[in-house]
Amino acid sequence: MAEQALDRSQFRFFHRLRVRWAEVDLQKIVFNPHYLMYVDTALGDYWRALALPYEPSLKAMGGDLYVRKSTLEFHASAEYDDLLDVALRCARIGNSSLQLVSGIFRDEQLLVGAELVYVFADPVAKRALPVPAVLRDLLLGYEAGQSVVQTRIGSWGELQNQIKALRPSDGQDEGALHCVLSNALGEPVASARLLETAQPRPDALAVARLLRGSGWEDVAAQALLAGGAN
Predict the structure, then answer these.
(1) Does domain 8-143 correspond to CATH entry 3.10.129.10?
(2) How many other C-beta atoms are found inside a 10 Å radius of the C-beta of residue 113?
(3) Which one-letter DSSP state was computed for residue 16?
(4) In the structure, what pLDDT confidence band is assigned to residue 229 with cuts at 50, 70 and 90?
(5) Phi/psi of residue 39, each to 5°?
(6) What are phi and psi of 130, to 5 degrees?
(7) Per DSSP, what are the bridge partners of residue 151?
(8) How far apart are CA 150 and CA 148, in angstroms?
């Protein structure tokens, strides 16, 4: 664990959850193994924030991630119905490993700190591989506050192939202005269109199935209204 005390200002990413009754033990506090589950749940949303569907993206990069180390440091306990923010960041990237640091907060109070070390490896041979450059650059860029998507705005003729990967076409697509977001692997992740009406408003919002709930379709709509200033 990092020696420096964790606080919310050190994180860009937060996943919010509420403590369920089944997660509380006889002491009426969260049973300690559940904190690792909270971090793992947040990690799924962290990948969605990177605009990367976890399993197919790692497969496309030729490997998978395996936990080598997980550490929890307890400061205080969460109780039933507490609203928690699980913060997560990539703190270090080695040759074949990623160090992730997490803080579980109730308001501003740090309840639990966590460190997880993953190794990028060949899923068949179970042999460590170098972290792919595209993943390294993406993680470093995200933690530095950069955008993780590419934005394209254009006509149906220009963008139809990417849009059809996200949704079926309809009779209003021709003549409309469209926006497509693509991730670091060049895959379309969300789209929106703008019809020529008296009060233009983005519609036909679509997002890749494995990224649903991440809000990328709203980002596409906002970029469309802003004329692609992204």
Answers:
(1) yes
(2) 20
(3) E
(4) very low
(5) -65, -40
(6) -60, 140
(7) 181
(8) 7
Q: Are β-strands 109-121 and 83-93 bridged in parallel, bridged antiparallel, or unpaired?
A: unpaired
CA-CA-CA-CA torsion sign (68, 72, 78, 82):
negative
CB 16 within 8 A of CB 53: no
| CB within 8 Å of 19: residues ≥ 6 apart | 30, 78, 79, 80, 81, 82, 84
For residue 98, the SS3 value is strand
What is the SS3 assignment for 175-213?
CCEEEEEECCCCCEEEEEEECCCCCCCEEEEEECHHHCC
CA separation, residue 2 to residues 6, 140, 208 (Å): 8, 18, 36
Domain map of the chain by residue range?
Answer: 8-143, 150-225
Please state the length of the chain.
Answer: 230
Condensed to tens digits (0 to 9), the pLDDT of residues 38-48 reads 999 999 999 99
Which CATH superfamily does the domain covering 150-225 fall into? Gcn5-related N-acetyltransferase (GNAT) (3.40.630.30)
Between 16 and 196, name the one with better pLDDT. 16
Residue 19 tokens read as 């403590």
pTM recorded for the entire structure = 0.91
